[in-house]
Design a protein that fits this description.
Blueprint: H1 2-21, H2 24-27, E1 53-61, E2 68-75, E3 80-86, E4 93-98, E5 103-105, E6 115-119, E7 122-127, E8 139-142, E9 150-156, E10 162-170, E11 176-177, E12 195-201, E13 204-209, E14 216-217, E15 220-221, E16 230-237, E17 253-260, E18 270-272, E19 274-280, E20 303-305, E21 313-316, E22 329-332, E23 335-341, E24 344-347, E25 362-365, E26 372-375, E27 388-392, E28 395-398, E29 404-405, E30 419-423, E31 429-433, E32 446-450, E33 453-457, E34 476-480, E35 487-492, E36 504-508, E37 511-517, E38 520-523, E39 538-542, E40 549-552, E41 565-568, E42 571-574, E43 593-596, H3 616-621, H4 628-633, H5 635-650
Antiparallel strand pairs: 1-10, 1-16, 2-9, 3-8, 3-10, 4-5, 4-9, 6-7, 7-8, 11-12, 12-13, 14-15, 17-19, 18-20, 21-23, 22-25, 23-24, 26-28, 27-30, 28-29, 31-33, 32-34, 35-37, 36-39, 37-38, 40-42, 41-43
């Protein structure tokens, strides 16, 4: 309560000082009823010459802050020509709240889209340049004048924020703003205290806070920027013909805005920059630029111009390659109707270009005269003296200059034949035979011998034969190396059926040892053929694929030993390659769960478990069996109850 009275006393003191130090009419400037807005200067004074205006500028820089909202500036009521911008592009954001703490731009952790926002009796323009192509940071501008105090924040996310600000105030209404040092800048919460000041009046510094005094230490807001991190605010006379950055030591000459550069494009969105010239402050007459401080020359900011769409035009693509490497061909190109708008050129329907003659999309072309096939030699002699052979000739591809070139330069479909068959007439032929084979087909008894017989051309022209004829010499003859005497060998029977109707199985056959005597056979003991390699009696077989089938595991152990339990097994449908399948018949799926041990449980009888008292039924009714004494004294009765309850739980 004592602190509140002190704040009220300070407020009354400042008000009295203002009343005695400044004329009342200069504190509240009102335009005369007959004064039009066009006749007022930047401070709102009718027929004023801007001599009563002051420019307030400053730069906020801070290396590291905590993530969140940080208050960096208060803009007093009546400010005009407000400009706030990031000096370096970053991931930080600018934000504004009014004197009641209501968000104007980027409040409550919600980032607004760039645009225009109405607050404090004026319109604020919020710009956030393209995040990829532009190197400029965010900016907030307003024409003013404002009708209430505004609080400016930076939403800190990236180190080393740098924010430049400036605005204009009537000189008679302004307090000299002096930064008050303190320990650090604190992130703001959702509820903020409004602060006006600190101000310097007649050389004395004052700070005004709200009734509660929240977030203030010795009259200074905890988010007030420290002196070492804040460029001191400068107060300078405002001249409408002069631009922002001024040097107090340079009073005779200043930079003056002299117009804009020509727009870089006549339509579709171009850019232009402001031009500045050095002038004498009093007469505004142009002088040499060397008389002005180069460091105070305002930085030209790029501005958009001629943003209206350009007239549609035919966009002509490149010609394609000629459709033929030689001789007459055709070329194609793409012709689109396009229109330039701001920062992009888009394709539009063709009727937008109907007033322009559409360029041709096809044209004829000829790279060179095609080469031709040329027969260089006559046919050669036939490759054989008789019968059918081949003959050849030389074919070359020749260009229009007579030079031989690669065959690919001529049309391969039109190439004349360079080889063909030739028939030199019938040739005389004879039967050619080999000697009889040395071996008989049977080691004993009757067998046969063979020889090869073939009809070939006979190059001996003196023979009168013209063909082999039908009298082909024999290719086999009988042979007999004598009777067989007690020969033993393995003999096999036919293969049996496959053991599986589908999938992999086995098949078998009979293998016996037989003794041959001339034309008769007798079964011999297996040891008699032991010196011979026996043929296999079984081998794998595969008739067809089985397709998907149900497979099961073994049953698990029963879940209970009596009175009904259950056991389970896993059932899967597997394909031929034993991978998971969904092609099994669901109606044939084996059970994966069944009941087991359904017989009644036989309780174990403990001979030592007896009731020691005749009234143990009272112990059971009183539910005293939970105590060890009664459970021992009335063992039989308590055990019976315990088994009955366990049976009910299982059910």
């Amino acid at each position: 309560m004592k602190m509140n009275w002190i704040c009220v006393a300070v407020f009354l003191f400042i008000c009295c000082s203002l009343c005695t130090s400044f004329p009342q009419e200069s504190i509240q400037l009102k335009k005369a009823p007959e004064c039009e807005e066009a006749l007022m200067d930047k401070c709102g004074i009718c027929f004023g010459d801007n001599s009563a205006c002051e420019v307030v500028t400053g730069t906020f820089t801070r290396s590291i802050l905590s993530v969140g909202y940080h208050k960096i500036l208060e803009i007093p009521k009546g400010a005009t020509e407000i400009k706030i911008k990031e000096m370096v592009k970053s991931t930080n954001y600018l934000a504004i709240r009014d004197q009641h703490g209501e968000a104007v731009i980027n409040g409550n952790w919600a980032i607004d889209r760039p645009g225009q926002f109405l607050a404090a009796g004026t319109t604020f323009t919020y710009k956030r340049p393209n995040e990829i192509r532009s190197k400029a940071g965010e900016s907030i501008t307003a024409q003013g004048p404002t009708n209430e105090v505004l609080h400016i924040y930076v939403i800190y996310q990236q180190a080393n924020p740098s924010v430049y600000y400036e605005y204009i105030l009537p000189r008679d209404n302004i307090f000299s703003i002096q930064p008050v040092p303190h320990s650090d800048i604190q992130p703001l919460g959702e509820t903020q205290s409004s602060q006006l000041g600190p101000y310097t009046v007649n050389g004395q510094s004052y700070s005004l806070s709200d009734a509660n005094g929240d977030n203030f230490v010795n009259g200074v807001h905890t988010n007030q920027v420290s002196v070492e991190q804040f460029t001191p605010t400068t107060l300078q006379p405002y001249d409408s013909a002069l631009w922002d950055d001024r040097n107090e030591s340079q009073t005779a000459y200043n930079w003056k805005y002299a117009g804009m550069t020509p727009c870089s494009a006549s339509c579709g969105g171009g850019t232009q920059f402001p031009l500045f010239i050095c002038v004498e402050r009093s007469t505004h007459e142009p002088v040499s630029e060397s008389l002005c401080d180069e460091h105070s020359r305002p930085t030209p900011e790029e501005e958009a111009c001629n943003t209206q769409p350009c007239p549609a035009f035919w966009d002509i693509g490149e010609w394609s390659e000629c459709s033929k490497t030689c001789g007459p061909g055709i070329q194609h190109r793409q012709v689109l109707c396009r229109q330039a708008t701001v920062n992009q050129t888009t394709t539009v329907p063709p009727h937008h270009c109907r007033y322009l003659e559409k360029p041709a999309t096809t044209t004829t072309c000829q790279l060179k005269i095609c080469s031709e096939w040329q027969i260089r030699t006559e046919w050669t002699s036939c490759s054989v003296p008789c019968g059918v052979g081949q003959r050849t000739r030389d074919i070359k591809c020749v260009d229009n200059l007579g030079d031989v070139v690669e065959d690919e330069e001529c049309n391969m479909k039109l190439k004349p034949g360079d080889s063909e068959n030739c028939d030199m007439g019938a040739c005389s032929k004879s039967w050619f035979i080999t000697e009889w084979s040395d071996r008989c087909s049977a080691e004993c008894g009757s067998g046969s011998q063979t020889r090869d017989v073939v009809c070939l051309m006979n190059h001996i022209s003196s023979l009168p034969l013209e063909g082999c004829g039908n009298e082909k010499p024999t290719e086999t003859k009988a042979c007999d190396f004598g009777p067989c005497h007690e020969k033993v060998d393995w003999y096999t029977g036919p293969w049996g059926q496959c053991s599986a109707e589908c999938g992999n199985g086995t098949k078998t056959r009979s293998v016996v040892c037989l003794r041959q005597s001339n034309s008769s056979f007798m079964e011999a003991d297996l040891w008699e053929c032991g010196h011979l390699q026996p043929p296999p009696a079984a081998q794998d077989c595969f008739l067809k694929k089985c397709g998907a089938k149900w497979f099961t595991t073994e049953w698990s152990v029963c879940s209970k030993s009596c009175e009904g339990g259950y056991r389970v097994r896993e059932v899967r449908c597997l394909a031929d390659d034993k991978t998971q399948s969904s092609n099994c018949d669901p109606f044939l799926m084996p059970e994966d769960r069944e009941e087991c041990n359904i017989h009644q449980c036989i309780p174990e009888i403990d001979a030592n478990c007896k009731d020691m008292y005749f009234n143990c039924n009272v112990v059971v009714q009183a539910r005293l069996c939970v105590y060890s004494y009664y459970r021992t004294a009335c063992c039989a009765s308590c055990s019976k109850v315990s088994r009955r309850e366990a049976h009910l739980r299982r059910r």
